[in-house]
Amino acid sequence: MFLECFHHTTRSNWAYAYDKDTIHLRVRTKRDDVEEVTAVTGDKYDWDGFHEDVPMLKIAADEDFDYWEAAVKPRYKRFSYGFRLRSGDETVFLTESGKFGEPPPPPGGYYEFPYIHEIDIFTAPEWAKEAVFYQIMPDRFDNGDLETDPEFTEEWGQPPTNDNIFGGDLQGILNRLDYLSELGITAIYMTPIFESPSNHKYDTVDYKKIDPHLGDTELLKKLVASCHDRGIRVVLDAVFNHASEQFMPFQDVLKNGEKSKYKDWFHIRSFPAEVKEGKASYDTFGFYGNMPKLNTSNPEVKAYLLDVAEYWIKEVDIDGWRLDVANEVDHHFWRDFRHTVKKTKPDAYIIGEVWSDSLMWLQGDQFDSVMNYPFADIVMGFIASGDRDGVTFANQINQLLMRYPQQTSEVIFNLLSSHDTPRVLTRVDGNKVRLKLAVVFLLTYIGTPCIFYGDEVGLSGGNDPDCRACMEWDEEKQDHELLDFYKLLIHLRKEHPVLRSGRFRFLKADAEDSRIIYERLGEGEHFTIWMNNTGETSTLTHPMDADDWSDALTGERVPTYEGQMSVGLEPFGYRVLKRAL
Q1: Catalytic positions, written as ranges
Q2: pLDDT tens readout for residues 544-555
Q3: Where is the Glycosyl hydrolase family 13 catalytic domain (predicted)?
């Protein structure tokens, strides 16, 4: 065995409390090298009185490694443990002290989990596990109140630019709640709605004032209450990394320079605070001089922003925050932010905008979730490009799954497109059957799915600003067949708990073959999803023990023959099969 490939770390995503009674242990071994891994566990104070060998299941693999997992339920919420690895006739024992040919006497030198403290367990809101999100840019969704339109409002449906405004507002969202309910949406995430000079509102002028072009606080209260009446949660977007240059404290800095009482609210490198030849004398979001970066380690700034976070929960009963440019704000701030938010509303959902590995924000002391852009890149890279085989796709998805504890993966914010990326239909070059394949994966995968407004009726568009087009409300221009497809898949996910919280695992993913099979397995239900990511009609065959499978969408029985199941698939086709356990 290649033991140099073995990896395990205590009290991390490799060993963590899943709930008050259960510890998940994970190890990594060289791919296809180890046949069997067993967790050797016992009470550190009474090993003879309580010890147990727990078989580990190979839950994932990537190009280089296999990943194994076991769920351990210690009798006294504590235990020591080691691992027994077997390959053929070779057996090795691994503990924190090293590797051994014979079982070392426990518990000295073994790994340990000292105690399951419930207060330390990372728990995300249960409702987030059940949610189907819908992302809305208010200016682009629907114009419900013409009287709030600015003078320069453009005609609805004109090509989007970096600067144009179309008059969409909170009333427009309120008017379309029937549409969202019929679609099956149970949560909405709105991009910023606070006073701002831009169309996107990511440059805040007043954090406690709704932008007048969108509505006011009373209208937001009405919208949130109406959503709650329908079982729809509401998450707002907060921009705490930076503000607008029109933000009053920054205006004071521009006016009074070093004498300003707000000079330490920002990262001013030299005075006067100014932009010369395109370069600011202060830190900004990117290199945008109109977005000065806030000093969130400043106690006054921290107190101001935490008050904002608490205010909108108390004032209008929102259900959470999505946090813009979250990775550029200090961790001390986010820890205090979580404490403030959870104290105000314990089941509030906190989503950070982080585009890469986010484990350091997902330890239970900062965010509940992050925008899972790596997921979008992997899925669209597989389905849109057509140049990746099944094993490459599975390897990438499995690596993503192994980044985080299971309870994190259950609420990770999965998306295919957003206001910051090309739309999904554009990413597949207008090929609707490929789009459907991507949506099937989104809605049958573990995590919290989010749909970008208009994707469901066939909106297209490249990078910002093209992806931020007006919602299409002319029914003659909507793709109703696509809309019905979204409704069907959303309903399927909502109807079957296993698609929201069951185990995810690939059953078939081969090299030089873009056809895959994966499963969702949970209490009482078993799903398998068969996908043909090729342009040719294909029959996919795989061993299946049971013979009581049916199509989850049509109810048609799907038989097995001598332990094998063969499923015919159209080009870029799929089948979703289910059975009761």
Answers
A1: 324, 353
A2: 988 999 999 999
A3: 135-493
